Amino acid sequence: MTALKTLGIAIFAFAAMSFTHPVAAGTRYPTNVIAEYVYACMKANGENRAILDRCSCSIDVIESILPYERYETASTFKQMGLLTGENGALFRESAPAKAATAELRRAQAEADIRCF
Predict the structure, then answer these.
(1) Are 26 and 67 in contact (CB under 8 A)?
(2) Does the global pTM surpass 0.90?
């Protein structure tokens, strides 16, 4: 499979995921996105009630800073940037990727300060 074809399939998969849970601009993040974030946060920080509260607080802070559309864009760049080689380079090194992921990192840093 060529790199371009692999990249196209990956982009299609992420695009399809975004259409399965539509959210109007200015509304809360979809429940599955919140649950996924809290689950990953707990896996990284510990699996107890105190961490559940902190991780829930964290996504709430991020939600208050970033509209869902920008969160989704940054998350997509972040995930796709994990691809190796030239497939992931576009998602790591382009100006829009850097701007979106920097914005997400700032929101996460604010959430860490407020919640952890």
Answers:
(1) yes
(2) no
Question: What CA–CA distances, in Å, run from 108 to 53, 100, 112, 116?
Answer: 16, 12, 6, 11
- Residues 56, 4: Cα–Cα separation, whole Å: 38
Provide CB contacts within 8 A for 116, sequence distance 6+: 45, 54, 58
When pLDDT is cut at 50, 70 and 90, the band that residue 16 belongs to is: very low
Residue range of the domain that includes 55: 3-115
Number of domains in the chain: 1
Query: Tokens 């790591």, residue?
Result: 92
Phi and psi based region of residue 26 (left: phi greater than 0; alpha: psi -120 to 50; beta: remaining): left
